[in-house]
Design goal:
single chain; 212 residues; mainly alpha; two-stranded antiparallel sheet; 9 helices; 2 strands; 2% strand; elongated; binds 2-acetamido-2-deoxy-beta-D-glucopyranose; DUF6698
């Protein structure tokens, strides 16, 4: 396999050192931003109006909060495909074998966890932090982050509702217990009829009003 120069940052790459500058090419970063965050994240000139159309970006659709080695290798495969002359995706393309390519890249990441952490941290920053801070008009990734916040708020709101419901139920129980106590002390009231017949009378009165 010819070693893929498109994955390297030319400025920092040192010949003969496999990992130096690997996964740091601007092209790979743009591919990743495009795939995970949508077109406006990868290209600042991208028309504003089309942002909200089409499929939501992956980060949003799958609620992705961190970039993994597998994400990165997936994007590297797609980037390789973009650069090839192949009209459609193939697992094999001349001397290029997709599985070998992916395996060797994963291997390079997993065999040096320091390198893997550094690389993935850098991508997390590109995807989630930098864009969030720097892009004053907001990117699709910012939208994704806002969505996550909204979901968290929603979860908190649900919890508040549940708490309120429990509190209400407790008050009802307490009221029932009090009523039961009152029933015990005033058994005569109970024989004269409960709340239901009274409600019925009110209902009749209302429907008569309605008819007239
Ligand atoms: C994108 O939106 C910003 C702010 O609304 C505007 O200034 C800019 O001209 C727009 N760009 C395009 C390409 O429409
Ligand atoms: C890589 O990151 C993980 C999770 O943040 C951490 O547990 C692990 O110790 C790190 N490994 C190295 C070699 O830095
Ligand atoms: C692992 O990666 C780190 C960071 O890129 C590098 O400094 C270190 O020399 C590498 N270790 C080995 C054994 O290649």
């Amino acid at each position: 396999m010819r070693w893929p120069s498109f994955l390297y940052d030319e400025k920092t790459h040192v010949k003969g050192k496999m990992r130096t500058g690997l996964f740091r090419s601007r092209f790979l970063l743009q591919c990743l931003l495009l795939i995970f965050c949508g077109p406006s994240a990868a290209d600042n000139d991208y028309e504003n109006g089309t942002q909200s159309q089409g499929t939501p970006p992956l980060v949003q659709r799958h609620n992705i909060k961190t970039i993994t080695a597998e994400h990165l290798v997936y994007v590297a495969c797609l980037a390789r495909f973009l650069l090839s002359s192949a009209p459609r995706w193939k697992d094999r393309d001349g001397p290029w074998v997709g599985k070998e390519f992916a395996d060797s890249l994963l291997h390079l990441l997993y065999r040096n966890t320091t390198f893997m952490n550094e690389t993935l941290d850098w991508y997390d920053k590109q995807v989630f932090k930098n864009r969030f801070d720097e892009d004053e008009y907001g990117s699709d990734c910012e939208a994704a982050m806002l969505l996550v916040e909204e979901e968290e708020e929603h979860a908190q709101e649900e919890q508040r509702k549940l708490d309120a419901h429990i509190a209400r139920e407790k008050r009802k129980e307490a009221a029932k217990a009090r009523a039961a106590q009152e029933d015990d002390t005033l058994p005569v009231d109970d024989e004269q009829g409960g709340a239901l017949p009274v409600d019925g009378e009110q209902g009749d009165a209302l429907s008569q009003d309605g008819d007239s």
